[in-house]
User: Fold these one by one.
Assistant:
Number 1:
Amino acid sequence: MGIYDAFLSYVHQNDAAEKARILAIGDDIRKEYKLVTNQELNLFSDRDSLKLGGEWAVEIENGLKSAVVFIPILSEGYFASQYCRHELETFVQNAINLGINNLIIPILYTDVDGFLEGTSADQLVVLASKYQGIDWRELRFEDRTSSAYRKEIAKIVQRIIKALKEAKVLIQSGHPKNGPVPQASADDEPGMLDLLALHEQRIHEAPITLNLITEQQKIITEIQKETTEEVKIINTQPMSSSAKLLSARRLAGRLAEPAEKILELANQLSQQLHDADGGYRIILTRLPEEVLKNPEGKAAFCKLAASVRQLVEAGHDQVEKAEILFNVYEGTAKISRELRPVIRRLQQGLTTMIDLKSLYDDWLVLIEASGIDCE
């Protein structure tokens, strides 16, 4: 696993459209850093950092965990990408956890609705706007050798140097990476209310996915009911092998689409909940102190807690349904090898949902442990 000083986060399609101008920013930052410090800047940009044939998702996650400074290249497409959103949210939490405001250096590459005004309906856009960003909307048309472009690259490098020094001091002083967080002094630094708003939005995404899963579960349950008699016939009636095989294929065909959708949606739900989990735990470790300082914090937390409780209730209901379906189709898979691949995919999705039960339970425990009375 590589250790990185900085992480360049961007949308690949944007870089392709700009003929690698975005990756060029990373290259120029490296060169300026070398010129100023006479040291190499280990910058994760995934083009240079991913090994051929490697596990790209794992390597990106390792880059996220090890890098100190985060440079997101912002555009509308950036906030539409679930991967970029995950990267940004991870670093927002890291910055707050360390108590250093300049770990994140947003570069506004193209217009993003509501970013400069802080009025976007997307809470992640609002959160990103609270960090001191650099307006690149005109610079993207400048030649890389122009003085305007080179001056901004130099400013970024100075901020990176400062952030690396501050992070090094904190780490050497024994500041726990996931421990109590120093209060930020900058007026524009994201605080508890910003995090609560962001994670309330994240929590609200999950019920939508749960509803979509419910729809697919209903379809599969109906198929199961309609085919119960057919399955009995396959098992008990004196039919030819070819007739039984045809029946099994028909059942596999009917199950294929909803099974794939359940697997896809279950993975999506798991990603949504685990993305929210890290930030939610950080919120709860800071909560008592923040609530005492800001009465609005209690109201915001109670609103989030109510959403979490509703989600947990719906999630537990889904887990029960998933367990029932899993058991029903466990026996069906034995009928024919034609059915096994489809049912295996279905069971993978159902297992993913069942495994979320421990996360739901943990969230309820965390709410109770906060000691905040929301009644």
Note: Residues 6-172 form a domain with the Rossmann fold fold (CATH 3.40.50.10140).
Number 2:
Amino acid sequence: MKRSTRVIVLLLTCVHCATARSAAAQAFSEARLQQACETLQRTPLATAELQTLLDVSRLATNSPALRSRSMAAYSISFLLRGNTNAFERAAQIHRQTFPGDPTLISVNRDAYLAVCADCEGTGLTTAVCPSCMGSGKCKSCAGSGHLKSSDGADTPCPSCKRSGTCPMCAGKKNIETPCPICKGTCRVIKLSEKVRANYLSLLTNMVAICQDDMDFSEQFNQAKNENDPAKRTLLLQALIQRFAHRADLKPARALLEKELKNSEAVAASRSKQREQEQAQREIEALRNLRDSKDTAPAIATLRAYLAGHPKSANQAEVQTLLDEMETQQARKQNLKKIAYGTGALVGLVLLVQLIKPLLLRKRRSGGTVKEIDKTRFSDPLTLTAKESKARVNNKDPEADDNPS
């Protein structure tokens, strides 16, 4: 069991190391590819750099864009080396491997082949027959068609079969042979400017892609390693905006979406905290109204808060405070009424005390009943009707007091 565990741990370690090496090799190959392309722009047939193109095209972990362009550039390098057959085979492999990039190799046969000037496109050249040396006669029988046997008899010439003509040129004196320049293909290699332009364009494009990949990787790592969430969000937004043309933005977009959700959650939490703090400050201010001397404005403030915050968590507390303030106000009003009534009663008592001496003084100045002259008064019951009427018409106070 322990041995099996050790083997598993060893295998996992090897896999981890291989993965790390593969990632390092990919990063190194991309930087190396950029350097190789820059060198090939100056020296188109540098052997080591061409091998780099081939290695990158074979490495499956590289991006398809770089692999396709590396294979296309390596294929065109065969033309620069004069090997059209190898170019055509490599171009065919490129079309099969990367069917989505048919225009990367834009050169056709007319761009690197021209009509052979030596044979004028016939593929053949005319030369004096080396057998008859231009005589057209069979050199075996000297054109007679017969040979003398040992006994002197004529026998047919085995070379020309009695025709007497040269069997090589058939009597034409000249023979046609494949053109030594074009090897009978009628065309020779003649590279146009399109070939070099296509090659340099691929190299330049690969340099730009490598630089773009390295810039993207650097900025993405910078964003991932940023500790400040706000700065990290800004870096990711700038990254996606700058590299919108890339097809591998999914991890960056996912990370940005996560950051935005976190930011929204943090903002909502802060907003809720601010609302709670504001509510706490408001409730503290409302609690302080309990000590207010002027209860009317305090009650108006409490009623306005309850009307404006019907779902407040402090509604019960505010309502209790309002009830206390209203009770306090009613108590003050009752006390005020009692004070007013007591004051009025005390004032009335004082007024009576002030008026009472005056009344007593007047009574003293008017004399007592015993001192009044009773003869001046007459009993109304003893008056006749005529006397009563005369007294009313005269309105004489003296007459009232003394009718006689």
Note: The chain has a mean pLDDT of 81.
